[in-house]
# Entry
Amino acid sequence: MLRLNRFSYVAPGDLDGALALMEKHGQDAMLMAGGTDLLVNIKQRLATPALVVGIRELPELQGYSLDRGWLTLGASTRLCDIEHDPRIRMMYPALSDAAGLISAPQVRTVATLGGNICLDTRCNYYNQSQEWRRAIGFCMKKDSPICRVAPGGDRCWAVASADTVPVLISLRAETTVVGPSGIRRVPVESLYQDDGLVPLTLRFGEIVSSVHIPPPDTWTTEYAKFRLRQSFDFPLVGIAASVRRDPDGNIADARVVMTAVASYPERASGAESVLRGKPLSEESITTAGHAVFRQAKPMDNTAGSIFHRKRMARVLVERSLRHIAGLPERDARTA
Amino acid sequence: MSSEKGTPLQSETSTFHAPSEPLAAHSSERTTQNFSVIGKRNLKYDWHAKLTGAAKYTDDLRLPRMIYGRLLRSPHPHARILRIDVSRARAMSGVFAVLTGKDLPIRYGILPSSQDETAMALEKVRYVGEAVAAVAAVDEWTAEEACNAIEVVYEPLQPVMSIDEALDPDSEKIHDWTKHANIQKNVLLEFGDLDEGFAEADRVFEDEYFFEGNTHVPMENHAALANWEPTGKVTVWSSTQTPHYLHRELARVLDLPPSRIRVIAPPVGGGFGGKSEAFSHELVAPVLSRLSGRPVLISLSREEVFYCHRGRHPVRMWIRTGVKSDGTITALDFKSTLDGGAYGSYGIATTYYTGALNTLPYRVPRYRFEGRRVFTNKPPCGPKRGHGTVQPRFAIEAHLDRIAGELGHDPAEMRKGMLVSPFSWTVNHLRVTSCGLPEAIDAVLERSGWREKHGHLPQGKGIGLACSVYLSGAGLPIYWNPMPHSGAQIKIDRGGGVTVYCGTSDIGQDSDSMLAYVVAEELGVDIGDIHLVTGDTSLAPVDLGSYSSRVTFMAGNAARQAASKLRAQLFQVAAARLDVPEARLGAAGGMIYDLEDTERQIPFAQAAQLAEAEFGTLGETGSYTPPKLAGPYKGSGVGPSPAYSFTCAVAEVDVDLETGILSIQKIWVAHDLGRALNPVVCEGQIEGGVYMGWAEAVIEEQVFRKGLHKQPSLLEYKIPTSLDMPDVDTTIIESIDPEGPFGAKEVGQGPLAPVIPAIANAVYDATGIRIDSTPIMADKVLRAIEMRRKQHAAAV
# Structure
């Protein structure tokens, strides 16, 4: 049977207690919210912390509040609550949709928003048992200098796989990050960097304590996800598409964010620029889809094929934009 | 249901003549009989334990002083073992015993013709995950550390990872005894003059297909607990489908008299063929127990279960068929090449099974089959639900769909005109008894609205149909012997309690319930008065195991025979007491009564006491041996069965032409199972089969990359969940088989096979594209759509 590595577990009473534990134990300690990702990683010996600091119950990580149109959610908000809470769903349906598409219902009752934001990058050479990884010679992300996806290269290609993150970026959300050197406010987009090894820009010991989402105003957002198994799976490509339209119907601004095709949640800047200033029409949508197709460069390190994931990126963005525009579903019969 | 007298099918020119006498189309059953248990929607025998979690599976068992075993497995697909140093592991605190291949060098294998495995690798490792060493330690963490402390020096060899590589004469030999490249076995069977058949044909069709490998994924991981007692007796509890075969393998490998070994199969959490032979952990645990003086539990991880495998073989197939203009087959030529993985397992039987049932359910007057199995450096393939018949069924039914289309026939009507008759023989000597396939086809056509839909749905939507056939138990045992295939013992106590002893292993298919229903019906008692002792080689007579869909037919008949002997004793004393002729007695509801005056009755328990006074202790045995059915040719042992089940399935699909994504709208299935002993359980088996077939058709694949299983986890080996399951409409067809218990045939495996080609055929109806390999993934469909678009564009 696959056993967890042995570790100590402490659940401090407040955020200061958690920060102090992290500072004291340094790299031997890891933070855990819902644990749905970390515990699997510990079983696979991807992580071998001596101390696990439980932060899900921290009072500073709880709550729901509205302030001048901004919604603030504690980082411990459970994914099932984001999925089902009518107040959240009314303001940010795409966020609720994305949360509802994560994993399986049981997992969503313990997994948290902060955990999804801080989700480690994934790779099918990395997310394997220690025995499996030993058999292939380990990989750059753990225990070897060589990346098994692109062995000649000098970087890790593990994939950003969170579903809520592209939506939060498209919604221009921000986070409160608390660390040893104080509190800072960081846009969600700035939490990530194009590095499969170290995907988060957070400094050691920092904790995402809450998420702030600006008022939806006239933005309309959609999230669409492709996976092989519809009941539960990480995304093989996910697209958050958000547009704000002028009174005359033209697109004043657009934010298109892709997940699961790179080591970070990637803005589809080409698609965004072709959309800006144009009406949301068959033509602009097709052009945006083509731009996404060109930009998405998945590697062969998740389920599914590169061929199919690139095409799905295009189809997902086109379908989301068509839905936002109120265009009928394209008659695929003629495809 | 009436049965017509069939004329045996035979070809004047067949190499082997089928026996000429028609089978008697009799029914031993009073089909109008009112059963009190059989055919009722009764509770499962173990419903409470299974519903509440009280059932104790092997991994739930705990013995005093028990310790934990673990296997060190090969990280190389193909390598010579140069040196193993266990000294560091052995010296660790908390480690009780360490073993390597040399400690258990006796070769074994489930088939007498494939004795090619050892409990742990000896000189070579042949797949990633093969056991190399074993440890027993105070806990699983220590066992893991001890495994990490074992030093193995390997000399890596060129791995052979595909059929083509295995056929290459220059490929590295996996087993040194293979004559040509890595070919384990070639088989060739020929019945009748094929040239004549093709000459007689109006059209000849030829196709190639590939069926991808996949695995069983039982919910319960394999586990074994062994306790070697100081007296020299050893008990092994194991999640096994075949306690009797494990018993034999243990005796062989441990070099111990079988009389000192007891195998117990606790409730098993699913098998599907993946727990039907001995595995390293089962053979190693007893020796670890002997060395440590402690009970030893080895509980495998999910990843290790993927390495145990013995699942569906990847099979490459070629088929050539001569047909008359009405679709009737004049000759069938079929070739298969199986990717067997590293060892023999059941593979030779599997190879024959890719040919054996292809002469059913359609009339095939001339038939040629050429099969071969190759070794590759992957976990061994073996039997998975539908053992070796599922791959050719995909090929044949997709091929027939194409033939029907090209000949301008409705695929369902064409098939209906080609079916074998009940009570007939096939050209390769298979004896068909009851056959409810015409009724099954009509049922799914009617319920699915086939006639309105096929060929008439809009682009992207489609409907497809396929038929299949399966055994109700293999006609021959795994090892040759003249003894019964199943035995049962029944005793009746003075309070009216009835205890049934039978060596069957309930793997979730409800074989325990089946025994209870059959005996309760025969003796006229309540199911609650039945007690079962099953899955125990010391306490119960031999049953060969839960494989080849044999248990209801064989153990059911054995149990019924034992019960009927007791019934005769009880009726004798009851007749005397009631002063009624025995022939006028009936038994139901715990009473034995006069059929003509039901007020004249005595309670079952009272009859039991009278009988015990008259005859002594009440106990009887029953056994079942299948009729001798094998034809007079080498290889005829695979295929014969006392009865065949028949299935027809229709699938309706929706293909997203922009993404290639396939969604199954609904699957209709009708299965001829002879008689449903409990319709609820039978529907569950049918739905389970449909689920598994659909999953194999659309998503499952056991694939390898750089010598390793690409995805040995439940997250990444894509097996669908209940949330993904399409709607299933199930119809039970009862053909009342003359030899089955109360007319029953199999239901556990057959319904899987037609689902896969039905989906493939529906995809064709939806898109005009034939996908000739499984799984039918969106990627594959979209590539085909894009290629066609390009071809169209080029043509314009």
